[in-house]
Amino acid sequence: MLRSIKPRQNTVGRAPSRRPAATAARRGYSARHSSHALVRSDDNARLADYEQRIKSSFDDIVPTLKRISAKQHESDFVAQAQRIAKTELGFELPMDVLNDAWVDQLDMRRLFAWAVFETYRRYTDDFNARDPLASSQDVGFDAFLQSCGFHTLDVTPCADGRLAHVVRYVLRLPQSAVRRKSHAGATFDIEDNIQKWTKVEMLRHREATPNEASEPTHYLKTVVYHFSSVDPDHQGCAAHGSDTAVAAKAGLDRLIGFREAIEASYCCGASVDLLLIGLDTDTDAIKVHVPDQNGNIDLDRSVDVLALFDETQGLSSTDASKAIDAAITECNASVQSGMQRFIAQLIENNFSQIAYVKSNHGGHYPDIGHAERFIGAGVGFEEVQLRNLMYFSYLDTVEEATKDLDVGVKIFSGLNVAHGLPIPFVIRFDYHGQVPGSKDRAQQRCSRVTDALTQRYKDLFDRGLLHVMQVARDLHQGGALNVFACTADTQEVGAH
C-alpha cells in the first residue's frame, strides 16, 4: 500500500509549486454543494480522499528534494537524505546518486525522475491490489448497458490530462467496464477501432461475450472533446487551437468516419451507435449532443448539464429525474428510448461530479491549465483515473503517434523543462501472460518505443531533461508491474 498521508492544512487539489495556475489553496471535501437530491455525497467524499492521497504523493516530490538538496554538503548527508525521503515520500532514494553528491552537485534531475517513477509504480501496484475506486454502484452496469441497447462502451477522450478522470469521476462509470483510449484532440485511429469492433463482435459470435450475437445490441462509440469556460481562448484543446467548434466537429467527423468504415467493410446491418460529449475541464460539467433515432448528431444541439444542475437544485429526486428526461427530449425528441435512458444516467452521474468540483474547488479547478505529473505512452494505464495526473498517448509505435507525443512534450516543456526538471516518460505495454512469448514481445515493444522516443527528442534526452521507465503488467495473472528498464536507474545506465 502507499504510505499513509499525514494530516496537513490546505492540501486538497494542490499541484507542485512549479506549475502555473496551480497554487490556489486546497480545501477539504464539504457537503455544502451536495444537497442536490441526485448527488451521491458519500461517493464524493471517498473520491476526494483518494485524489488527495495520490496527488499529494506526487506533489511532495519537489519540496522533499529541495530539503534534501540543501543538506548535500553536510557530513551525514546520505543518512539525512534517506531519512527525509522515507518520511516524506515513503521510500528511499538511489544510493549511487546520493553517494556521489560530494564529488559534484547532486543530480537532482535524475532523482526527480526516479522519484516520479517510483511513486507511479507504487501507486499502480496499490491500485491493482486494492481496487480503491470500486463502488457498489458498479454492480449491474453491464446489464444496464445492455438494457439500453449497447453491449460495449468505447470512450475516446482527448489525451489531455484534464480528461484522464472522465470515466470514473466525470461520468461515474466503472473503469473496468469501459474501453478508454485517449488521443490528442480525441481524433482516434479508425483502423484500430475497426479491429477492436471486430474482436468484440467475434467474441459475441463465438463465446456469447458480453452477450449473445443474436441480441439486438450495438457497439457504442463515444468521443469526449473539451473546452474551457474560464479561459476559452487559451485553455481549450491544444490540438485544435483552443477552438471549441473545431474540436467538436473533429470529434463528430471521426465518429461518422468510423461508422461509415464499419458499414462499408461488413455491410449486412453491421453498425455502431455514436455519442458526442463536450467536457468543460474547469468545472467537469458535460454537454451531451443527443443523437436522433437514426444516430445523427447536431453540433448545435446539446444538453447543458451545468445549467440543468442549477435548475434542478432543490427538487426531489423524482422531479429532478423527470427534468433530466425532459431536457433530453427537448434537445432531440426522436432520440431512441435506450439512448435516452443511457444519457439520463450519464447526466445524473455528472451531477455528482459538478457538486464535487463546487465543494472542493469553489466551482472550478484552480489549475485550469495543464498540470500533469508525467507522460504515459503505449497500452495500459487503466488505473490512471485522476485529472491532471498523466498526459497519455495511446500508441504502438512512436511514428504513428508523433502528433500526440509532440503535444505532450510541448506541454511538459512548459511544466518541467522551463524549470530545469526532466520530462518523465512511462512506456507501458501490458500483455497476457498465458500467451507464449507475450512478455518478451512486450519488453521488445517497450525497448523499440524508447529507442525511437530518445532519438526523436535527442536533445532533451542528452541533457538529462527526458527520462524513461519501461514497464508492463501481466493482465492474466495480475500482480505488480514488471519494470524492464529505467534511464533514471544509475545501476543500469551512466549519468547524462
Q: Could you give the topology of this structure?
A:
Layout (H helix, E strand, L loop, with lengths): L40 H19 L1 H9 L7 H13 L5 H5 L8 H23 L10 H7 L2 E8 L8 H5 L8 E2 L9 H18 L10 E10 L16 H23 L5 E9 L5 E4 L13 E2 H7 L5 H15 L5 H25 L12 E6 L10 E5 L7 H14 L7 E7 L8 H19 L1 H5 L3 E7 L9 E5 L10
Parallel strand pairs: 1-2, 1-3, 3-4, 7-8, 7-9, 9-10
Antiparallel strand pairs: 4-5, 5-6, 10-11
Largest sheet: 6 strands, mixed
Would you tell me which CATH topology of one domain applies?
Answer: Beta-carbonic Anhydrase, Chain A
Binned, the helix content reads 40-55%
Radius of gyration: 23 Å
Based on DSSP secondary structure assignment, what is the total number of beta strands?
A: 11
- What structural class do you assign from the helix and strand content? alpha/beta
Main sheet: strand order: 2-1-3-4-5-6
| Beta fraction | 5-15%
